[in-house]
Amino acid sequence: EDQVTQSPEALRLQEGESSSLNCSYTVSGLRGLFWYRQDPGKGPEFLFTLYSAGEEKEKERLKATLTKKESFLHITAPKPEDSATYLCAVQSLTTDSWGKLQFGAGTQVVVTP
Amino acid sequence: DGGITQSPKYLFRKEGQNVTLSCEQNLNHDAMYWYRQDPGQGLRLIYYSQIVNDFQKGDIAEGYSVSREKKESFPLTVTSAQKNPTAFYLCASSSQQTDRSGSPLHFGNGTRLTVT
After folding, report:
1. Residue B101: pLDDT above 80?
2. How far is CA A113 from CA A19, A40, A79, A80, A83, in A?
3. Which pLDDT value is given to residue B98?
4. Residue ranges of chain A with pLDDT lower than 70?
5. CB nearest to A105's CB, from B31, B40, B112
6. Cβ atoms within 10 Å, residue B41
7. How close, in Å, is residue A93 to chain B by CA atoms?
8. Confidence band (pLDDT; 50, 70, 90) for B103?
9. Mean pLDDT of chain B
10. Which chain A residues are Cβ-neighbours of B23 within 8 angstroms?
């Protein structure tokens, strides 16, 4: 059974204080790993797709990396607008439908000025 | 702009009543999905449909029903048989195409259902 575990559950940062979020996964063949950002009361917003170990993607203050067992989302010099819940999800090679993803519970990030 | 519209944003029902959540997309996507989100848990798949007039159960289908009469629409009914219906419900769609730069799912902004 595919599983995704995110840690920590919650993270409180001072503005400018860099940190990393972890996403550990077990999947029967990884097709892709995805990071989303979710604001309260909204649907998840896509951030990154990673396909193979060693791959890295960057967007503004965010950088996602992938190994064979986990992914990290690094937040460099965060700003208050980076406050959100960050979700990790995996897509199995054996899936019968493109949108069937296994999600982690998320990491809630709060950045204070 | 193309997207997914879920309505209503908030829904309140009494226990024992069935309730239907609306989901409409204008992205011309073939596949549509319903996920449920609870505090401290990952999104869980309720039902999905890859073509009109066909749908499959996800991981937590008990107490729910769906229909897919039109490509654009995928309503979810939460029945009185669902033991813990209070949750945030997310509808999503997918083009089922290989797009190595993008997300496999496009989400709506959810419906928060409260049953008392």
Report:
1. no
2. 16, 19, 7, 6, 11
3. 60
4. none
5. B40
6. 13
7. 12
8. confident
9. 93
10. none
Q: How far is the C-alpha of A97 from the C-alpha of A105, rounded, in Å?
A: 21
Q: What is the pLDDT of residue B100?
A: 61
Show Cβ contacts of residue B63 under 8 Å, excluding neighbours closer than 6 positions.
B78, B79, B81, B82, B83, B85
Facing residue for B107 by CB, picked from A43, A91, A104: A43
Which chain B residues have a beta carbon less than 8 Å from that of A99?
A: 31, 33, 48, 92-94, 96, 104-105
Amino acid identity at B89: Y
The pLDDT tens digits for B34-79 are 999 999 899 999 999 999 999 999 999 999 999 999 999 999 999 9
What is residue B1's predicted lDDT score, i.e. its pLDDT?
A: 64
Return all residues near B65 (Cβ < 8 A) that are at least 6 apart.
B76, B77, B79
Q: Which of B95, B107, B109 to mutate to test the interface with A (most CBs of A within 10 A)?
A: B107
Q: Enumerate chain A positions whose Cβ falls within 8 A of a Cβ in B.
A: 4, 9, 32, 34, 36, 41-46, 49, 51, 87, 89, 91, 97-106
